[in-house]
Specification:
Order of helices and strands: HEEHEE
Largest sheet: 4 strands, antiparallel
Low-confidence stretches: 184-189
Number of domains: 2
Mean pLDDT: 87
Shape: rod-shaped
Number of helices: 2
Structural class: alpha+beta
Strand content: 15-25%
Strand order of the largest sheet: 1-2-4-3
Length: 189
C-alpha cells in the first residue's frame, strides 16, 4: 500500500480553483453583457429605422396632401373667377331688357317741343341733355319721367334760355335715376 501525500498547500489549490471559476464567471458575464448590449443596440436601431421609415412615409404623404391642397386652392380661385364672370354675364343679361325699356320710356315720355341731344348712363343715374321750346315743356317732361315706372327722382341741373334763329329755346340738363318696376316684387326686368 502506498500512501499519497499532498505536499502542495491545499489552500493554494482552492484559491486557484476559485480564481478560475471567477474568471469563467467574469467571461460569461462579459459575454452576456456584450450580448445584451448588442441585442439592445440591434433592437433600438431597428426601432429607429422603423420610425424613420414612418417619418419618411408621413413626409411623402404630407407633400402629396400639400400638392392636393394647392390644387384645391387653384380650383377654388378658378371657381371664384367663373362665378364672378357668371355674375357679370347674369347682370348683363338682366340689364339688356332694361336698356330697351329705358330708351322706350325716354321716347314715350318725351312731349312735343322737347328734343334730346345726349343721354348718358352711369350706374343707375342717367344724365339727359336736351333742348325744349319752353320751360313749361321741360317741366312737363320731368313730370312724365317722374310718372314713369322706369324712372324716379328727376332733378333739373341746368336750364338756359337762349335765342336760336329768332326762336326762344331752353337748353337743359337733368338727371334721373333708373328703376326696375319688377325688382321690388321679385319679378325682375
Amino acid at each position: 500500500m502506498s500512501t499519497k501525500i499532498n505536499l502542495l498547500p491545499w489552500r493554494d489549490e482552492v484559491k486557484r480553483i476559485r480564481k478560475n471559476q471567477f474568471i469563467g464567471m467574469v467571461v460569461i458575464a462579459a459575454v452576456l453583457g456584450l450580448g445584451v448590449v448588442f441585442g439592445g443596440n440591434v433592437y433600438l436601431q431597428g426601432m429607429i429605422d422603423h420610425q424613420e421609415h414612418r417619418n419618411q412615409l408621413l413626409r411623402s404623404e404630407i407633400s402629396r396632401l400639400d400638392t392636393r391642397i394647392e390644387r384645391i386652392r387653384e380650383l377654388e380661385r378658378t371657381r371664384e373667377q367663373l362665378e364672378a364672370r357668371m355674375n357679370v354675364i347674369q347682370e348683363l343679361q338682366t340689364g339688356r331688357p332694361q336698356i330697351v325699356h329705358m330708351f322706350e320710356e325716354l321716347v314715350t315720355t318725351l312731349p312735343d317741343g322737347v328734343f334730346l341731344n345726349s343721354v348718358a348712363q352711369q350706374g343707375g343715374n342717367i344724365t339727359i341733355i336736351g333742348v325744349g321750346q319752353s320751360n313749361a315743356r321741360v317741366s312737363s317732361y320731368m313730370e312724365r319721367l317722374d310718372g314713369s315706372p322706369w324712372f324716379t327722382d328727376p332733378n333739373l341741373d341746368v336750364i338756359e334760355v337762349r335765342d336760336r334763329e329768332g326762336i326762344r329755346v331752353s337748353n337743359f340738363t337733368l338727371r334721373v335715376r333708373q328703376t326696375s318696376p319688377g325688382a321690388d316684387n321679385g319679378e325682375g326686368a
